[in-house]
């Protein structure tokens, strides 16, 4: 009986020693992996659902900790880099905040208006339009009895100040007195085209 108890006690001690050894080996392995991955870094993610084009606030953001080895270009670690900017796309909770997916909020002078023109069967524009381009607005409207349709230049040299990430719309800066005409033409025109006219690029190409 005593011999059996000694064997059991010996097995228990051995089991305890083996468990300690296993725990030590696991700890050493985890430490080695963490050393390879480097220090941990806090990166910004969405704390809640954030609609596109909404200025980012501190409450929209939270941080998650990642090994520095997993840090990729575009990940943001400092809230000051993005607070006040707008996201180009809707962000679900937990989505990474990426520097190339946010931009400065568009500031329009008091005597100007920002009008978004959405691509449709009526509104047409190049897919490669970008912020900084200038466009002429050409409209085709119903004509009089002598001609079925009439095509004319509505506005010229409008700056492109905003572009959707998927190129589904562009925002142009319009003098306040011309804004009603451009808005109305989106309903009245048979076709409204934006033609890019950026002299600087034309000169570079030549």
Automatic annotation (TrEMBL):
<dbReference type="Pfam" id="PF08666">
    <property type="entry name" value="SAF"/>
</dbReference>
<feature type="domain" description="SAF">
    <location>
        <begin position="41"/>
        <end position="103"/>
    </location>
</feature>
<protein>
    <recommendedName>
        <fullName>SAF domain-containing protein</fullName>
    </recommendedName>
</protein>
<dbReference type="InterPro" id="IPR013974">
    <property type="entry name" value="SAF"/>
</dbReference>
